[in-house]
Predict the 3D structure of the following.
Amino acid sequence: MLGPLTIAVAQPACGPKDVRANARTHAAAIRAARARLVVFPELSLTGYELDADAVDLTTLHDIVDACAETQAIALVGAPVAGDHIATLRVDASGAEVVYRKSFLGGDELTRFTPGPGPVALDVDGWRVGLGICKDTGVAQHVADTAALNVDVYVAGLVHHDHELQEQEARAVRIARACNSYVAFASFAGPTGGGYDRTAGNSAIYSADGRALARTNGDVGGIVRFALT
């Protein structure tokens, strides 16, 4: 039997390409979340700025320190070396790339390279499947992640505010396909790439697609839930 896993989804303020300031904001969110696993939106360290430089993983001391203080694991969005949009795992030991976005769209196709495919992390015995934004709408990605027998599927997102209904529909489809919890951390506030208004409404869902906890569209929202 798995022990409980407290998970939080956060949508912090983000300055364009200001990794140092954004890392401090992430650290504050981790301390406020009081959760074992804290999930952040797509490209949360830079904003959806497709010309941002790759993030140097050795510079994220503020996030590492916050994770050490709270015994948390943070899943953070960043552009990384090799021209990938990535999810970083950050904990007391440092930061590492654990997932590279598999399905790219729009202007991403001219700047980034697709990742190699689905990944499942082990967090205290829980199998945590990973996705990033467009991945969540691709049936093949969802099916391949489900085949990894995940207990929870997490993803960082950037969606327009008028795409909230699609964001919700994807969560329900993934929950049912994976027979797992789903946690979406969705960007709030304006960001690059023409996203003048984003969806926010980060949420955690049951395996039958019910929203168990949800924040709203405001910048700075955090919500947590204990998975059992």
User: Anything to note?
Assistant: The chain has one domain: 5-227. The mean pLDDT is 98. The helical segments are 19-33, 61-70, 139-146, 164-178. Residues 5-227 form a domain with the Nitrilase/N-carbamoyl-D-aminoacid amidohydrolase fold (CATH 3.60.110.10).
